[in-house]
Each structure stands twice: as C-alpha cells, then as structure tokens.
Amino acid sequence: MTATQESLGAPRGFDAFDASCPSRRLLDAIGDKWVSLVVVALGLRGPLRYSQLSAQIAGVSQKMLTQTLRGMERDGLLLRTVTPSVPVRVDYELTPLGASLLDVLRHVKEWAEAHMGEVDAARAAYDARPPAS
Amino acid sequence: MTATQESLGAPRGFDAFDASCPSRRLLDAIGDKWVSLVVVALGLRGPLRYSQLSAQIAGVSQKMLTQTLRGMERDGLLLRTVTPSVPVRVDYELTPLGASLLDVLRHVKEWAEAHMGEVDAARAAYDARPPAS
DNA sequence: CTGTATCCTGTTAGATACTG
DNA sequence: CAGTATCTAACAGGATACAG
C-alpha cells in the first residue's frame, strides 16, 4: 500500500490514492447525490428554509436531508440560521465556499453537456456488440 | 416529485434533480472512488496492464477493479486491448473521452487545493464549539 | 416547523475459491 | 495473467414514530 503512495502518489503533495487526502474528501462531497442537489438548490434559489429544501429536492428523506445539511454545515459549505420564533424557523444559505463548489459543479455540467452524447453512443455500441466469440 | 422537476429542474435542458439526466450519470462516474483512481492512474502513466493497475491502485479488489474497468469501457472512457499470447495480456488506455474526464478531475483538484484548508478549518471550528446550550 | 431516534431492508464491496 | 462466481459482512438509506 505504501508502494502506491510512492509510485503514483502526490507528485506535488496531492494524492488521490490516499483516502485521507483532501482531494478524496472532495470527491466524496461532490459525488454525494444529496450534497450536489443541495448546493444547486441553494445556489439557484438563494437562502431556503428547511421545509423549502425538503420540497425542492423532493424525494429526499428527512433523515438524509438533515444528515446532509449537518455535514455541509460542518464543512463550512452552508450557513444555518435559527430564528427562535414560535414555530422555529431555520434558514440555510451557501457560504462563499459553498458557492465556489457550485462552480466546480458547473464545470462538471459543462463536461456532461459536451461529452455525454459520446458516452451514450459508446454505451449503445458496447451493448450492441456480440457476446464474445 | 414532478413539482421538483418543474420548479428547480432544467432551466435549459439540464436537470441534476432527475436521476436519468446525463449530469447525474456523470456525477455517479466521477464520484466513484475507483473510476477516478483509474482515470488518474491511466492518465499519469499511460497504458497499463491489468496487473499493473491492480498494483498501482493497491487496495482495490479484483472484483471492483474488473467491474470498474468494464463499466468504463462500456462508457467509452477507456480502451481494452487483448493480446492472445500464451499468458493472456490485456492493456488498458484512456480514450480521448477518458482523457477529457481527467481534465474535469483536474478542476476538482484545483478546487481542493484552493479551498480544502477552509473546509478543514470550518470542520475544526464546528467540532470545537459547545454542544448546544 | 424542524428535527431526533429507531427499526429494517437493499445494495455494495471485500474475501475466497475456481477457470480459460 | 486476467478474470469469473459465490458468499457474506457492513452500511447507507428509507419508513415510521416521536419531541422541542
């Protein structure tokens, strides 16, 4: 395992092969279905309340939404504001850091728009080819 | 659920909230631990044989490596070349499409290098704060 | 309204053993 | 060498019920 770190690892302090490396944690973040959805939702619609997010993302369970929100808050991706009114009110908004993550997602979006057709074509071709000789 | 697609969905034909949308499939792709590792490995070291990949990525099981490789081949991300020598030899190399995915990963890398310190700081601050009043 | 706690199920991935 | 097949353990995630 150490061999991997040395042979392929961090040419300049960056090693995606090391699970503890920041890059891996970021991949975990943007790779997470709900995280990316929350980032996009907040990025597109500005600050939202818990119930609004719940409605927007429709399909997310309370458990996953809360869990995702907590994790993102912990990572400094969003700000959680509690207003102690009679029925409690909680607003969530992207921090500048969270907004910058939205930019990364935008790059992903661009790649998808530019190349996803190729992927579909490749997939169709692969599935159509004879099941080996 | 349909409400979500309409309210937040594809302002211009792109809807990350739709699981069948290309963007989601891409997220699934780059979010996958092993896919990103294989892309980086092949991108950094050029064509590699199965056994070399297995060694490079150290920690991946045969099952996951094969599964990942098959999926990537299907998606047109890499090319699989079988040389029917006495002991069979199989080489894997990135296609132009796969190489372009490496570029996306590069953006991710840059974001990580630029902001991951902030994430760590936020996390430390969050973990250090009192467990609520 | 905004969560927390619990149970329960499906998927996933690692280990292991075997084949062309 | 380069896989395939099978079994099982771990865990993520959904449903549900309840609380501040």
TrEMBL record, chains A, B:
InterPro entries: HTH_HxlR (IPR002577), WH-like_DNA-bd_sf (IPR036388), WH_DNA-bd_sf (IPR036390). GO terms for molecular function: DNA binding. PROSITE patterns: HTH_HXLR (PS51118). Keywords: DNA-binding, Transcription, Transcription regulation. It holds the Pfam family HxlR. The keyword Lipoprotein does not apply. SUPFAM superfamilies: Winged helix' DNA-binding domain. PANTHER family: HTH-TYPE TRANSCRIPTIONAL REGULATOR YODB, TRANSCRIPTIONAL REGULATOR, MARR FAMILY. This is Transcriptional regulator, HxlR family. The keyword Isomerase does not apply. It comes from the Bacteria. Residues 21-120 form the HTH hxlR-type domain.
